[in-house]
Amino acid sequence: MMAKKMKIDPDKFARAVVSGSAITESDDVKASKRALKRYLSAYLLIEDFNKLEKETVSGLNDQSFSEMMGSIAKALQSKY
After folding, report:
1. Is 48 exposed, middle or buried (0-12, 13-18, 19+ CB in 10 A)?
2. The whole model's pTM is what?
3. Which 3-state string (H, E, C) describes 12-69?
4. Which of 15, 16, 55, 56 has the greatest number of beta carbons closer than 10 A?
């Protein structure tokens, strides 16, 4: 059983994704839209991850970490 639940800050994660992305658009509007799309995609992905992780941890006490991560990955993959 995992003693501590994992929770990723969606804003920090999304900012890290955008800041680590190379945006090569010459048009500022296109570059801004691309950055916003990356930010929102990352933010929503982590919100879903946090929700699934919370549900998985609270519902399955004896599941190993790798099995739990596999369950979460499957759920996220089917959604996206």
Report:
1. middle
2. 0.68
3. HHHHHHHHCCCCCCCCHHHHHHHHHHHHHHHHHHHHHHHHHHHHHHHHCCCCCHHHHH
4. 56
Give residues with Cβ within 8 angstroms of 72, minimum separation 6.
49, 52, 53, 56
AA letter at 21 = S
DSSP state of 76: H
For residue range 48-71, list pLDDT tens digits in order.
Answer: 889 888 877 666 555 666 777 777
Average pLDDT over the chain reads 82
